[in-house]
Amino acid sequence: MDDRAIVALYFARDEAAIVETDRAHGAFCRRVASNLLSIREDAEECVNDTYHAAWDRIPPTVPQSLRAFLGVEDFEAQTILIDPKDKPSEKNERLIEDFCRALEAD
């Protein structure tokens, strides 16, 4: 299913939007979360928080790129879960730079 159709499901408040989002972008969201969170359960919680944020924000938001939108939501959810003693680190800074480049390439 393409992103326009997925966004239409969100606007229709159809819970299939979450299933289709995970099908289309779940691997990306899990990769972003796993790169910054070393505990698998924290990464999964972050992805779930990302889907919840998407449900809450679409509508009214109409993302131009669903992948970029999810990536930003995923990243914001992670900043809450990262242990402050792990910030800033060269690894995290490098991952953030890689994440931003990936979004720009989308």
Structural account:
- The protein is mostly helical.
- It has one domain (3-105).
- The chain is built from five helices and no strands.
- It has helices at residues 3-11, 16-36, 40-57, 66-81, 90-105.
- The longest helix is centred in the N-terminal third of the chain and has 21 residues, at 16-36.
- The chain is globular.
Briefly, what is this?
The protein is mainly α and 106 residues long. The protein has helices spanning 3-11, 16-36, 40-57, 66-81, 90-105.
Q: How many DSSP helices?
A: 5
Residue fraction in strands: under 5%
Q: Which structural class best describes the helix and strand composition? A: mainly alpha
Domain count: the total is: 1
Number of strands: 0
Distance between the termini: 17 Å
Estimated radius of gyration: 14 Å
Task: Write the topology of this structure.
Blueprint: H1 3-11, H2 16-36, H3 40-57, H4 66-81, H5 90-105
Helix pairs in contact: 1-2, 2-3, 2-4, 3-4
Keywords for this entry:
0% strand; mainly alpha; 106 residues; 75% helix; single chain
